[in-house]
Amino acid sequence: MSHIHIPDGVLPLMLWLPGWILALALVTLAGRLAERSQVRRKVPLLAVVSALMLVAMSSEIVPLAYHVNLTVIAGVLLGPVLSVIAAFIVEVVLAMLGHGGVTVLGLNTLMISAEMVLGWALFRLLVHVLSRKRVRWAAFIATVLTLATTTTLLVGLVALAGGGAATARETGALSPATMTFANPLSGGVFSTGLFSGGEGGTRASAGKGAASGSSSGAGSLSVKRFAAVVYTLGPLGWLLEALITAWVLSYIGRVRPGLLWDGAFEQHEVHLQGDEGVR
After folding, report:
1. Cys-Cys link to 184, which of 73, 115, 173, 227 (CB 3.0-4.6 A)?
2. What is the number of other CB atoms lying within 10 angstroms of the CB of residue 139?
3. Half-sphere exposure of 172 (CA within 13 A, CB side)
4. Domain coordinates of the chain in residue numbers?
5. pLDDT tens readout for residues 74-95
6. Which has the closest alpha carbon to 79: 41, 133, 22, 105?
7. What rounded mean pLDDT belongs to the chain?
8. What value does the CA radius of gyration of the chain take, rounded to a whole number of Å?
9. Smallest Cα–Cα separation from 74: which of 99, 100, 39, 45?
10. Where are the alpha helices (DSSP H) in the chain?
11. In the CATH hierarchy, which top-level class contains the domain 13-188+195-265?
12. Of residues 93 and 162, which shows the higher confidence score?
């Protein structure tokens, strides 16, 4: 599910409060389920993966108004339990930096957790079907299916919020009024907002290639127009992230197979190279 950059005061209490309660319950459960040996061995990996996700979510490919979240990669490497913990860590930091309000932190944790776990599950299923020799295809297909599913869930959440300010979003080179593309390089190619308080404005940013609002500062969109923008830009972003995910996981599968399969299949008996001294 895509990360939303909605500031405080936009979503109704009936949406964000249950999100907080469910997120805290999920993180608490994940903390109890995580084995001590697993956590001790994977703390460095958890930190690195969380940092990479943080940077990716704070950076935008301007022509597509697209944020590469790396959630499927993170889910495969960490497994479902640690994915929940990583999602919470990332969302807390992003909220502190102004990428979304504090009230939507719970919903964002649930969204990113769902995306990571779904990516992990689909990758695992596809590897069983296609074999480990086709990691690239498994990663590519799992990423596209995951992002298509979670982007749809984001549209549903915006619809439940009643549209309004929740639909004000960047659209990159796409004009939401005419649904046509302008010069894709007029606003630059890449921008980062890690310490700039987010991308600014009242908007929900779909981290998975779904775009929002208008780069020219247009106001809120109708839910129907918002969905049209999302599903126009979304597939481009899904394919881009799927290519990145396929390349990264394929490379990891060649140089550190234990790291890849331990996360994807929870085979704790497999020891990573260099872990021989860890007890």
Report:
1. 173
2. 31
3. 28
4. 13-188+195-265
5. 999 999 999 999 999 999 998 8
6. 41
7. 76
8. 18
9. 45
10. 13-33, 36-57, 71-96, 105-130, 135-160, 223-255, 257-265
11. mainly alpha
12. 93
